[in-house]
Amino acid sequence: MHRVAIVGGGTGGTVLANRLADELQPEIEAGEVDVRLITADEHHVYKPTFLYVPFGKKTVDDAKRPIEELVDRRVTLTIDEVTDVDTERKQLSLAERATALSYDQLVLATGATLEPEAVPGLAEGGHHFYGPDGAEALRDELAAFTEGHLVLSVVGVPHMCPAAPVEFVLMVDDWLRERGLREEVELTYTYPINRAHGLEPIADWASDLFEERDVNLETFFNVDEVDPDAEVIETVEGKELAYDLLVAIPPHRGSDLVTAAGLGEDGWVDVDRHTLEATAAEDVYAIGDTADVPTSKAGSVAHYEAGVVADRIASRVRGTVPTATYDGKTVCFLEAGMDEATFIEFGYGEEPYVREPSTPLHWAKLGYNESYWLTARGLL
Amino acid sequence: MSNAISPDVTIDSRGATCPGPLMDLIGKVKTLEPGTVVELQTTARNSTTDVPEWLEEAGHDLLEIEELDDEWRIYLEVN
Ligand SMILES: Cc1cc2nc3c(=O)[nH]c(=O)nc-3n(C[C@H](O)[C@H](O)[C@H](O)COP(=O)(O)OP(=O)(O)OC[C@H]3O[C@@H](n4cnc5c(N)ncnc54)[C@H](O)[C@@H]3O)c2cc1C
């Protein structure tokens, strides 16, 4: 019996498990292969929904479905937390299971962890829309916010969905206009490097829009500390910025599991950027946010990587040489307001081209979000 | 080779694409005492412009940029 273990039932892990169930159907049915998905949460969470929660357009419940409904019945589903990875003995320890689980091939798809506590005062002073509780608290705060200075600060890089902070600012600008409050609110966007975004074409696009929509842009802005009582942000560069409502993208890190297993620093797994195989251990792969590859931490990346790793694992199972590789393909829809969006696509070493935003692209983004559940099932 | 500068801290950001090396540097500098000499190793050409610009902004001193084959070593002193 060849045992494939996948840790993490988010976008990457779920797509991968379903792909493997499909590709290895004959072997699974013959009892030669076991595909097991181990995930800590009995719900699958589709995080892009959180962007719409602060504006009352979606609820936190819209973002989740029972994982059981999404995973092919040929996959062995285990709801438990993996507490230790032993790549020498090829075993996983689980929180609620006394005996360790052995694997022949392992895929880590444990995602990213938010760490607001890494910056003093941030957890107390800042809001965010990167998780269910944060998004709901921000929704209530925004509903009551009628005047003052709203600051969107990108504190941590890398973070999930590099486009989301820009989208949030453009959406809040539009939302305040619709409610007749824009004149009463000053908007500022801050970014750690010398432009508005890591990718130059997006930085240029966003800077032009910010100017058009009267959004202040602060660059080289690295938050050192937040004073929640005085409502002031202090930066490493020695700047101070006063806010009334702070929406901050908190620092991210990977999983302690990864660090403890010696698979990578800061919890991100060091992998070959094309094969997605861990550099520090045999028969270990990483996909999605946890894999340290030079592209965005995005669901589309997790999805494409899952396809590649499914092919590579299937080849190994069949004793053939794996040839599928990941070329860095990344696709993102970007909201440019409440009813317009654009779309970008790029691979390793390529610069994206930002199209003119349009209403059809906004509907395409919302449509994709709805059809996502089919994607997770491996049907799209 | 730069023999004159012996760094107290070395940051290896080789292989990381822009703005990775700059972010590695900023993260580290936050934790260092004034007077500390840092060596940043990078393979991203952009670092040779981004890093000096940030040092100027943040008030740290650029000591030297050394070019090797497809790699750069940026030396600075924390203020
Ligand atoms: C507000 C917001 C908007 C976004 N918008 C977009 C967008 O428009 N487009 C886009 O492409 N991406 C977007 N993203 C990013 C996208 O959601 C992530 O990149 C994607 O979810 C990554 O998938 P993943 O499988 O790596 O991790 P996740 O989907 O985060 O899943 C990780 C899973 O691992 C499980 N897990 C973790 N540790 C353990 C353990 N020790 N044992 C067992 N299970 C464990 C977790 O419970 C979870 O189920 C957005 C993200 C946010 C926050």
UniProtKB/TrEMBL annotation, chain A:
<protein>
    <submittedName>
        <fullName>Pyridine nucleotide-disulfide oxidoreductase</fullName>
    </submittedName>
</protein>
<dbReference type="Pfam" id="PF07992">
    <property type="entry name" value="Pyr_redox_2"/>
</dbReference>
<dbReference type="InterPro" id="IPR023753">
    <property type="entry name" value="FAD/NAD-binding_dom"/>
</dbReference>
<feature type="domain" description="FAD/NAD(P)-binding">
    <location>
        <begin position="3"/>
        <end position="295"/>
    </location>
</feature>
<dbReference type="InterPro" id="IPR052541">
    <property type="entry name" value="SQRD"/>
</dbReference>
<dbReference type="InterPro" id="IPR036188">
    <property type="entry name" value="FAD/NAD-bd_sf"/>
</dbReference>
<dbReference type="GO" id="GO:0016491">
    <property type="term" value="F:oxidoreductase activity"/>
</dbReference>
UniProtKB/TrEMBL annotation, chain B:
<dbReference type="InterPro" id="IPR001455">
    <property type="entry name" value="TusA-like"/>
</dbReference>
<dbReference type="Pfam" id="PF01206">
    <property type="entry name" value="TusA"/>
</dbReference>
<feature type="domain" description="UPF0033">
    <location>
        <begin position="11"/>
        <end position="35"/>
    </location>
</feature>
<comment type="similarity">
    <text>Belongs to the sulfur carrier protein TusA family.</text>
</comment>
<protein>
    <submittedName>
        <fullName>SirA-like domain-containing protein</fullName>
    </submittedName>
</protein>
<dbReference type="InterPro" id="IPR036868">
    <property type="entry name" value="TusA-like_sf"/>
</dbReference>
